[in-house]
Design brief:
With 85 residues, the protein is mainly alpha-helical. Helices cover 64% and strands 0% of the residues.
Length: 85
C-alpha cells in the first residue's frame, strides 16, 4: 500500500519594494556621463593590468634568454675543447 504524503502549505511573507518611476532615485547611475566615466575607469584598470602582465612576460623572456646564452657559451666551450678527429 502506498501512503499518502500530506503537504501543509506554508505561510510565506514576501516583502515588496516600491520604487518611483521618476529619475530621482538612481539618476546618477542611469546617466550617460556616469556610464562613460565608469567605462573609462574600467578600461584604465584593464590597460594597467595588461601592462603589468607584459612587463612580467618581458622579464621572463629576458631571464630565459640569459639562460640560453649561458648554455650556448657552455656548449661552445665544450665543443672547442674536444679534439677534432
Amino acid at each position: 500500500m502506498l501512503s499518502a504524503v500530506r503537504r501543509v502549505p506554508r505561510a510565506v511573507s514576501v516583502s515588496a519594494r516600491l520604487y518611483t518611476t521618476g529619475r530621482t532615485e538612481g539618476s546618477v547611475a542611469q546617466s550617460k556621463g556616469f556610464n562613460k566615466k565608469e567605462k573609462a575607469h574600467e578600461d584604465q584598470f584593464v590597460h594597467a593590468h595588461e601592462m603589468e602582465q607584459l612587463a612580467k612576460l618581458r622579464a621572463q623572456i629576458q631571464a630565459k634568454q640569459q639562460e640560453i646564452d649561458s648554455l650556448q657559451k657552455d656548449a661552445d666551450a665544450i665543443t672547442n675543447k674536444t679534439p677534432k678527429a
